[in-house]
Amino acid sequence: MADTGIQGGESLLFLTDEQLRKGIEAMFFAYRGFTADPDRILEKHAYGRAHHRAVHFINRFPGTTVNNLLAILGVTKQSLNRVLRALIEDGLVESRVGTRDKRERHLYLTAEGATLERELSEAQRGRMRAAYRRAGPEAVAGFRQVLEAMMDPEMERHFDKLKEQG
User: Fold this and answer.
1) 93-97 and 64-65 as β-strands: parallel, antiparallel, unpaired?
2) Euclidean distance between CA atoms 117 and 93, whole angstroms
3) Which residue pairs, CB below 8 angstroms and at least 24 apart, start in 66-74?
4) pLDDT digit string (tens) for 82-129?
5) Strands of 64-65's sheet, edge to edge?
6) Which of helix, strand or coil describes residue 109?
7) Most buried in the list 2, 5, 84, 151, measured by CB within 10 Å?
8) Are the beta carbons of 1 and 135 closer than 8 angstroms?
9) Strands (E), the chain
10) Are 55 and 108 a contacting pair, CB within 8 Å?
């Protein structure tokens, strides 16, 4: 495990700018590693991270509406439409008209979309599993607490829905 320069819980409330900078840099490099494997998979399909996020959350919330996906991803309608158009045209996502409200579009992964999602998720789960094992259970719990504490309230509500879903 990398040395953070923090010697115990007692100093956590009094982090120096240098300690915070090291944490920020660790997040940058960890994110780079976390996205490296999926990026290679996505590149084969000429997709980017926006496609990955859309596929991930459509998988987590089958039948989610376009508006709900917009709220989760925090992107513009134009940007999401571009991503969804490609995923639908390529046969990875299916858009169905709502049964109660015909204006709504409900999104589902096709079998091919589920296969891609599984491949992307397996790559990230493998990296996270290895990191969690290396860090240990206390570090994992602390890491989750830090991540949840950094979330904006709106994102925290979306995350809470995911936790309820299991």
Assistant:
1) unpaired
2) 11
3) 66/95, 66/104, 66/105, 66/107, 67/104, 69/107, 71/154, 71/158, 72/158, 74/155
4) 999 999 999 999 999 888 888 889 999 999 999 999 999 999 999 999
5) 64-65, 105-109, 93-97
6) strand
7) 84
8) yes
9) 64-65, 93-97, 105-109
10) no
Residue 77 Cα distances to 45, 71, 86, 164, angstroms: 22, 10, 14, 27
Match 């917009």 to its residue by tokens. Answer: 70
Q: Which H or E run contains 139? A: helix 137-150
Convert the pLDDT of each residue in 20-66 to its tens digit: 999 999 999 999 999 999 999 999 999 999 999 999 999 999 999 99
Question: What token pair was written down for 95?
Answer: 């858009």
Q: Which residue has the tokens 């494997």?
A: 37
